[in-house]
Amino acid sequence: MTILIVDDDRDIVESISIFLKAEGYEVLKAYNGLEALEKLNENPVHLMILDIMMPQLDGIKTLMKLRRSRNIPVILLSAKSEDADKILGLTAGADDYVTKPFNPSELVARVRSQLRRYTSLGSIEKESSRIVSGGLAVDTESKTVTLDGEKVRLTPIEYKILELLAKNKGRVLSADEIYRRVWNEESVVGDNTIAVHVRHIREKIEINPKEPRYLKVVWGIGYKLD
Amino acid sequence: MKKIFYSKVTKTIAWIMLLALTLAFTYELYSAVNEYVSVDEYSVYDFKNEFESSRAVGDLLDTPIQLLVSAYRELDIGSVHIHQHNGQILYMESTPAPTLTPSPVELTPVPTIIPRTQSVVELKPTVEPIPAPTTPALIPAEAEAADMNVYEHVKEYFSFLEDSEGLEYYVRINDAVFRNCDAESEKDLMENRFYYLAERSSAGECSYESSGYRGSLRSLNSYFDADEMYGSDSIVVCSAIKDDYARKMEECWNAQEAVIRESYRTLLVLLGGMVLIVIYLIAAAGKNSAGEIKRSGMDKLWTEIYLALMLGGSIGAVALCVILIESSVSTLYGAIPQYISEPLIYVTAVLGMLITVGSLLMLVRKLKQGQFIKDSVCCVLIALAWRIAKAVILWLFRVLRTIWRYFARTWRALSTEIRSIMAKKTGRWLIGGLSVFSFLLWLCGTFTPDAPIFLLFAIVIFAAAVYALIKRAKDMDEIRKGTKEIKGGKLSYKIAAPHSADLKELADDINHIAKGLDESVAAKLKAEKLKTELITNVSHDLKTPLTSIISYTELLSKVEDLPEEASDYIAIIASKSDKLKRLTQDLFDISKVQSGNENINFERLDAALLIEQSLAEYEKEINSSGLDFVVNLEKDVYISADGKKMSRAVGNLIGNILKYSMSGTRVFILLRANEGKAWMEFKNIASYYMDFDPEEIVGRFVRGDESRSSEGSGLGLAIAKSYVEACKGSFELNIDGDLFKITIGFDRA
Fold first, then answer.
1. pTM score, two decimals?
2. CATH of domain A130-225
């Protein structure tokens, strides 16, 4: 498995490569966009970690050029932490977005997740009982949840909440509504049961629960699964 | 059931039944009228009549006196000729042979008592001579020729009654007696149940007597009374109906009455049926078999058309039917033959019912659809007229306002100008001089022979002055407009150069000020932009090296065989770099929000849920903190704020509480609301002595307790306050002894 790391800061490239090599990945390095495209043409690459602010050819442009021919997972790496920047990056074709400064272990986890999805989950069985969102799959028949192909252990209540959100993918459900549909009774004021359960689910399915990819908190309104 | 009620089939059946009933009704009515109207036309309409007051009896009793009056009248018309020509022969010649056939009206009494089915009496209009023994003997010898004619005439008229079965009469004129029975005198006839006696003395006084009969005997009384045509004749007329004949007539009459009453009952029943069907049709109208109200093409016609159709259809059909029935049963000459009128009546009735009920139902549909008024062309026209009137009034108002404004502005400019001129010494001199000059000119013009020239001169000078004044006024106006524009924020506006030098200076000055302002605003904007860029760049430049520090520290921590001291140092570096990371982000955030560069995305938030969600994020820390959290949130309190920003603010406050609360104490988190406001309260007992100013603590990098500075950036409260205020909320901090209390206020959404 070969990973291409692109950043104009050599120290960062070096540190990331050490972490990835420790995980058993092959690593290629590039220090700007043009170099990255050259490396891509010369070698088989399975994943790319790409910085945005770079000389010569910035990350977004590199990504757009890459996407014309290649479908490999790309994780953007940037000091820009604004929502607008993230949206721009993901729209340009990135699979994930990690802001600097990052926790190296988190980056490694994200790399693993993307690769697993890219390789082993290339073809997803199209079963009606499976609700899929990125690497997350909820099987309503066998009542199991898998993340990047690996089973996630959830309590029955947690599973019910996740299933409800998965069935209403993209829709914001209020805490009251979730309570009513999971417990079949009216919610009690001042009871943050739902909030706590959702927090627990996030800890189980998200790499970084504070920056969830799947189960999102819509503050003051409810929750949704993207 | 509902389906059947509204189904087309049921409606069609109802329609057919309605039309059939209409047909039956018309037929019954027509038959009844046709059968009996000629019998006793008043009885048909008035059932309070009894046989005793029926026309049958009245007409029969009436006959002799009617005949007598007719005979006399004919003679009276002839007698005019006698007077004129003074001769009886002339009378005989001039008078056409007396109409031997009495008018049908006069003869009706006889057939009236004949029900159509049985012929009891047959009329024999044969003239038979009055029996010899009576007439000659009764006519006095001295009777004049004219009188002879009276007798002749009367005799002739009465000859029709000779064979009359039921009627007996006794007439005596002077001494001549006419009768068709054995009565010796009128007294004999007066023993019958029905009789009528009229007497006229030779002096012209009249008296009447009748028995049994209760109706009115037409108006013959007055004929008999008033007329002078009887001269000095004394007349006695008595008529009577034979008792057995009267009985027969009564039976017959009663039978007719019964038949008519029966007819009326039938008609009532039919009418009731029709009303019921119409009520059903009204109830079912306008809905299809599913009970839904549907609008079809027919419904789009104007309401008025259906109203007209309904009224016209009903009134027209009834009127036509009445006319047709009347003319059909009428025995008058020129009546429409029955074979034409009868089918016409039925067609009219059915068509009338169809149109009337049909349009009624269309109106009902409109009512049910709520379109009754809307479809009305009158309403549409009124609405249209109202709209046009409103537009015209508005337009007029606008025109007037424009004119008024124009005058007002001109006047304002002029008056300002005059005032400003008057304010200057030279101006005052000028105006004064001009006035004196004009006055002198006027004087000269009045008292010298060269008046026109002076006057012209004066006018020219005055016009020039006014022109100059208006020109200045215009300049002033332009300057005033320009100042207003600049004040309104259009700093690039340039006032057009005025004509007069002093105003030009003023305009230039204003333009200059505007230009300066424009430049300074632009500079400020540029500085603001630079500041934002600086924040972004500094943040980036801080983050990149930090990334390396964090990564390599982690790598270091994984190296085995390090001396224990080195591991401790690495742990310190790791914790400090982590703190630096948070600090950078916090610094970036607060700089952004405080410089107003943060986008606030307002949403309608459930305040209780927001707090619950934030609490959940800190669930582990709360559980392990040893603090007792008392959470009391009011339900259904909504505020308008940015969810992400508010979660950060609330999260910071909770984090703050966790950090600085005395162990074992209670923490109160409350949400309460009144009509327009929502309040979030965060109360805790500080674990240290708070000797700072509430104003100070929310400042940047200020921490209450220096000794615990290893956690947090010191920006938590500042960020919370900034975010709350950016979301248009209020943020209040109170310190009361050891009680640390933060109140966030929002308008309810």
1. 0.47
2. 1.10.10.10
